Amino acid sequence: AQSVAQPEDQVNVAEGNPLTVKCTYSVSGNPYLFWYVQYPNRGLQFLLKYITGDNLVKGSYGFEAEFNKSQTSFHLKKPSALVSDSALYFCAVRGGSYIPTFGRGTSLIVHP
Amino acid sequence: DTAVSQTPKYLVTQMGNDKSIKCEQNLGHDTMYWYKQDSKKFLKIMFSYNNKELIINETVPNRFSPKSPDKAHLNLHINSLELGDSAVYFCASSQARSGYEQYFGPGTRLTVT
Q1: Residue B53 contacts residue B66 (beta carbons within 8 Å)
Q2: In this complex, is the C-beta atom of A60 within 8 Å of any C-beta atom belonging to chain B?
Q3: pLDDT in tens, A42-51
Q4: Coil, strand or helix: which one is B84?
Q5: How many C-beta atoms lie closer than 10 Å to residue B73's C-beta?
Q6: Chain B residues touching residue A105 (CB < 8 angstroms)
């Protein structure tokens, strides 16, 4: 069965510092990997995806993620955090079954 | 222009009632989904339709029945509502050829009293 692990319930970072939100996955076949962001009382918004090609993918709002096949990881990164980045972040995977599986979410808090 | 819309946004009802939530997407996508997000923000897929055909039907009580009248619409009907059905329900859509990223509606907050 495919699964996604987001090991941190919460990540705290100071504004202007780099941020990383971790994600590891388990899937049969080639993975399709995604990051989504959810602001309070809103639906999820797509940030970026990896399907094939360059291991470093760039997405919306200055976010990027690095696909690491050997470590089965897809960590979300941003060089300089903004207070407005504070939100709930979800990693998701879909594999051969085409059923999308989401992680439990990581709350990112950026302090001024 | 709203890409994925849901109605109603809020739904408060009593146990035992039957209710429906409607979803529409104007993105031209071929696949639509229903998700349930509980109070701990855990997101679980319930159903998925591709071109009006049911392709994903996860472990969901029979009281929940999806209906897709056409590619742009996916409705969710819930019979005999229970307290545990209280959650936020999200509709989403995606397109296979663009990589399956999903676009979510604003959610319907269902409260069963």
Answers
A1: no
A2: no
A3: 999 999 999 9
A4: helix
A5: 16
A6: 41-43
